[in-house]
Amino acid sequence: MAHFAVPGERLMANPVVVEVTRGALVESAHRGAGAVVDADGRVVMTFGDSERPVYPRSAIKALQALPLVESGAADRLGLSDKEIALACASHSGGEDHVATARAMLAKAGYDEEALECGAHWPLGEDEARALARSGRTPTALHNNCSGKHAGFVCLSCAMGVNPKGYVAPDHPVQREITASIEAMTGARLSEAMRGVDGCAIPAYAVPLVALARGFACLGTGHGLSPERGKAVARIRAAVAAHPVTVAGRGRFDTEMMSLLGARVFIKSGAEGVACAALPEAGLGLAVKADDGAGRAAQVMIAALIRRFGDLDEQTEARLAPFVSPRLSNWNRAGVGLLRPTGPLA
Amino acid sequence: MAHFAVPGERLMANPVVVEVTRGALVESAHRGAGAVVDADGRVVMTFGDSERPVYPRSAIKALQALPLVESGAADRLGLSDKEIALACASHSGGEDHVATARAMLAKAGYDEEALECGAHWPLGEDEARALARSGRTPTALHNNCSGKHAGFVCLSCAMGVNPKGYVAPDHPVQREITASIEAMTGARLSEAMRGVDGCAIPAYAVPLVALARGFACLGTGHGLSPERGKAVARIRAAVAAHPVTVAGRGRFDTEMMSLLGARVFIKSGAEGVACAALPEAGLGLAVKADDGAGRAAQVMIAALIRRFGDLDEQTEARLAPFVSPRLSNWNRAGVGLLRPTGPLA
């Protein structure tokens, strides 16, 4: 991948897409790229270098959960919609998240010892403080990826495979998942474009246009086999019914999906990635902030949802604080804001 | 300020200075600008748009603490070196930080009710969890700026002025501070380039070259009146003696100054700003990441310190983890790194 040898040059073309103001000045600015694509791969809009492969990170957890549902493993183990939602989650590590992950593992006959994601303090600040207040320390169940990993253990179990080592690229579970991402996005996942994710599983780089197409397919089922179409519909319904399970109270994905319901499926990933499906419009969206800033990805994806989401005026008004969030000081006085600019203005 | 009307255009020139890798690929990249200047204002090195005014945020707390020391207020109230260090701090909100801020206020005859910075949970994750574990909630004393604000109350008190409203731009305390920043940097602080900081005080934009010059003066005392020269030396000594007071254990400024001692004075600010003084080399440094990322500012300033700090080989080796920090997953396996690039390679 010669173009990655000079990433500065490749990134040069990406426009400023989000500004951060304070007082009269622009204090900081984010560059980025993005794509809006339909399920046939027709490109509706791009900005920046939308062909550049980026690590989607947690933004594609739904695609990673697809084999669990499509294979029938979720049904055979009797996973609930909430448990399927947790398999797609970067959760806040609250008590309900932890209990749900534990229950998933139990259905497969395992416990948290089977998780290979590592432990960290809950992503949610309230959840982290609640855990500290209780005098306990975090386990792998508190890891924001524990639902995804519990899903991997469930899939492994249903496949009749020992889950041990399920984070390795050549474990049967990861092979299934890689195939699912390739089928949904149309991209080839290559070893040359692979890293290790925060939770230890392989991270493959995928072009933004391909990610957007994958989300268009996820949102519509268009072009998928009947089994896969049924599986994506079940995942969408599970997430729409459990937006707090997928992230947590006060977090972007949860609040956006609580506002918009089944009209949108959103998943953010680390390092400034976000993907979304707009089932009614038949579109998939994918964005990446060059610098990895989550706040920029949120503004980008909210701006695209406003533009392509066919929203009524009232919903659009309620979306405004996500498209252009207000920045406050510790006395809760407004001091600035984020706003989409350039191709997203 | 016409050039701020098209910030995207102005920022266009700034080079990629920090790359974030994962596996074989560059996952994210940060652009930025910086300046290395001596106390006479001679520019030793710049990269990017170093003339663009940026909000220095907390990076100039030492300049904001200068009137407290230079006026003799600190001596009259009997402030210790640790208390002077806390006046320059963005602290982690630990018990010692809180107790020190409380003691400063008491010396001026006030308590935390006088603080106008607002309350927030401790910046330090360990400190926040310790507070949660204790069952308490944060007060203004836990605000990372509480030492600076306690210093403002002390200065006000020593000036014979009611501290109430000390965060307002036209309060005598803020007028003193504005004059101090102007004198040290040589920049004019204008109302047209003003915002409100997170802790409610005015934030004035200052060109990076001027910030770097101010830090060269802070580091050397060169060109300052004897009183001011004595004051900057006292501030440097106070911070060098109390690096944990100025930030907190595990935080960049504290760890860098613990490593380098009085050879460097570093202060980071929000939105990707960092300033440093290298007294022996007679230089001041100032950097700003376009996107506001603190991790990028840290790598930039560490790279400049390595280049201009006249360090012996052993110290340079110990600096390496700050110049190019390793990124780990939750299992503590290395997955990537940050590294300076372009003009900082």
Can you characterise this structure?
2 copies of one chain form a homodimer. The first copy, chain A, is of the alpha+beta class and about 350 residues long. Helices cover about 40% and strands about 20% of the residues of chain A. In chain A, the strands form 3 sheets. In chain A, strands 1, 2, 3, 8, 9, 10, 11 and 12 form an 8-stranded antiparallel sheet that branches. In chain A, a hairpin with a 2-residue loop joins strand 1 and strand 2 (about 25-40). Mean pLDDT of chain A is about 95; it is low at about 1-10. The interface between A and B is large, with 64 and 64 residues.
Shape of chain A: globular
* Rounded average pLDDT of chain A: 95
The portion of residues forming beta strands of chain A comes to 15-25%
| Number of helical elements of chain A | 14
**Care to count the β-strands of chain A?**
12
Question: Quick one: biggest sheet of chain A?
Answer: 8 strands, antiparallel
Low-confidence stretches of chain A: 1-11
Q: Name the largest protein-protein interface in this structure.
A: A-B, 64 and 64 residues
Quaternary status of these chains?
homodimer
The termini of chain A sit apart by 33 Å
Q: Find the structural class of chain A using helix and strand composition.
A: alpha+beta
Q: What is the ordering of alpha helices and beta strands of chain A?
A: HEEEEHHHHHHHEEEHHHHEEEHHEE
Share of residues in helices of chain A: 40-55%
- Measured on Cα atoms, how large is the radius of gyration of chain A? 19 Å
